[in-house]
Amino acid sequence: MGVVWTPDLTMKQGSNLGRFMARLGIREPRDMIERSCADIEWFWREAVEELGIAFSRPFQQVLDASGGIAWTRWFGGGRINLAENCLDRHARGARADHTAIVWEAENGQVRQWTYAELDDAASRFASALLKLGLVEGDRVGLFLPLIPEAVAAFMGCAKMGAVAVPVFSGFAAPAVASRMVDCQARVLVASATTSRRGRELDMLAEALLTLDSAPCVEHLVVIGQPDHRTAKAACRVPIHDWHGLLERSEPHQPARPLDPETPLLIIYTSGTTGAPKGAVHVHGGFLVKIAQEAAHQADMRQSDRICWVTDLGWIMGPWTIVGGLAAGGTIVLIEGVPDYPAPDRLWAIVARHRVSILGVSPTLIRALMKHGLEPVRDHDLSSLRILASTGEPWDPESWRWLFENAGGGRLPIINISGGTEVGACLVSVLPVCPIKPCSVGGPALGMAIDVFDPEGRPLSHGVGELVCTRPWPAMTRGIWGSPERYLATYWSRFPDVWVHGDWASIDEDGFWFLHGRSDDVIKVAGKRIGPAEVESALALHPAVAESAAVPAPDPVKGDEIICLVVPRAGVLCDSALEAELKAHVAHALGKSFRPAHVGFVADLPRTRSGKILRRLIRQAALGLPPGDSSSLENPSALERIAALGIGRPATGGSFSTHQPREDSLSTHQPRED
């Protein structure tokens, strides 16, 4: 695939990155990337100055890796607070009355907060935490949808030095409790309810159940209008109404100057086996890296309104909050789903609130594609100037759909990839560089990224492991309470090299591509292939709306390929179509990669942010225990895959003769049981 978008002179010279390069005397983006990755100390010092990040006491040393690369410390000798940079300096200055937050509920309710209003709420919450007896380093659970109060709670924790622990707003009590116990949180902040496809979900009930299994929690703060008398009767700890708590608290709580390595955030990511991992992020490194990415990748400015379809419990929730507010811009928050109460909800929000930077996942776009083009074309999307994406590899059809329809062929898709433990991204498209469909561009600025073969040698051709050979500011400071697990997970395969767990390749023109998780890799008779390649081939068939490919054990070949397909509306799912799809993949990828089984389902297991959970698909298909499934949005999808039995050789048939049901998005709370 060739280049489909090239930056014009305005983007090259007028973007944040273009101006940064001009100040440094660097003309070519490739030179900027190479120098930033080769001399990371120089780059991050320059980035701090360019972005105007305020240290209350200047740092003396950019980085200190004397304790080993895995435990690198950043901005030594300085003092900083993330909230000072994202909130205080704006609220005290000329941007006090600028809109910081726009929030819209599923029912159309809209609220807006200025920087001054957000600072008042955050300051009062910080004061309230101090009155409750919390001290620097104590953990505060945030069981909240993306509402304005969630941002205030996050920033309030940062102001007084508490550690925010956001968890997915769709979790049930066991999943919330396991995280609260792991980090020993003293306070839990919960929304009374949230709305999901028109259904009011009782988050307070889950919070109360959480307390039964989390004796560490001493206080429950509730946002919303619950029946406090009923709740208090069932609760072993004091329940504080958010608004009452804030009214009784001091309105002026300045951000404390902190050591840059002070923990800011513990955010959990689920592993293939074992308990979820609590990635630890700190004030200095997380702020600098996220502010730099928002400015130089998403080109975020004070005049921009950024909306990322995500959740507070996923890394892109904190990324959007920190990146948008550090730039002094406006963050647009969506509660609920992007295609309810109407298929055009996302596009209507973009038009109504003049969103200029829109972040999505490939899975979300595939879901919206099912509604056709009318929902997109019915709205004025002229405010958009940047499209962004993350979460998983793209397939060409979905990428082009977003590029041509939402972007009109004129907007760049800033495709990034990193992860919860990375705190940001490893690879990224840059707005000053040409773009190929589905590409992740190349190494993000300041990131010494490479692709290694199985022996740990740089790989110029073919698919290999995505690795990082130098530290970066936002890298996790370990897994909470388990330093050995951190080292074993990321640093044990190659000496002093972070192995991320993604397959990547670099084409002949220097464009980088991802091919899925390396632990999802399928090895058929010694030949490796990523699930994304199989899924991209299936996406070209007119009967396929969406698909997932996973490996199953084969006594001769090692692995065989299993495909789960969501068909387009009206498609007859029978043995003839199964055979046709197998042949289609074999024609596209070669006979070696002909799928052994194809099953038809109404939906694929996914997180609320739309990420397909291939590990759970494989476990269900093989009839194995799912392991950690707490991030699953739609458990019924997993049950239907298990019922097919396509990964178990003892079953008779490999296809479903029933038409997939239309209720493919479950509104049930996912449970960890």
Secondary structure elements and their pairing?
Blueprint: H1 9-14, H2 16-24, H3 29-38, H4 40-51, E1 61-64, E2 73-76, H5 82-91, E3 99-104, E4 110-114, H6 115-131, E5 139-143, H7 148-160, E6 163-167, H8 173-183, E7 187-191, E8 193-196, E9 199-202, H9 203-213, E10 219-223, H10 228-233, E11 239-241, H11 242-247, E12 263-269, E13 277-282, H12 283-296, E14 305-308, H13 316-326, E15 330-334, H14 345-352, E16 357-360, H15 362-369, H16 374-377, E17 386-389, H17 396-406, E18 413-418, E19 425-428, E20 442-443, E21 449-452, E22 464-468, H18 483-490, E23 498-506, E24 512-517, E25 522-524, E26 527-529, H19 531-539, E27 544-554, E28 558-567, H20 575-589, E29 597-600, H21 614-621, H22 635-644
Parallel strand pairs: 3-15, 5-6, 5-7, 7-10, 10-11, 14-15, 14-16, 16-17, 17-18, 28-29
Antiparallel strand pairs: 1-2, 3-4, 8-9, 12-13, 18-19, 19-20, 21-22, 22-23, 23-24, 25-26, 27-28
Helix pairs in contact: 3-4, 4-12, 5-6, 5-7, 5-13, 6-7, 8-9, 12-13, 15-17, 19-20, 21-22
Structure description:
The chain is α/β, with parallel strands linked by helices and 673 residues long. It folds into three domains: 9-87 and 284-516, 3-Layer(aba) Sandwich (Rossmann fold), CATH 3.40.50; 90-96 and 116-247, Rossmann fold; 523-644, GMP Synthetase, Chain A, domain 3, CATH 3.30.300.30. It has 22 helices and 29 strands. The strands form eight sheets. A nine-stranded mixed β-sheet has the order 4-3-15-14-16-17-18-19-20. Helix 5 crosses helix 7 and helix 6 (115-131) crosses helix 7 (148-160). The model is unreliable at 650-673 (pLDDT under 50).
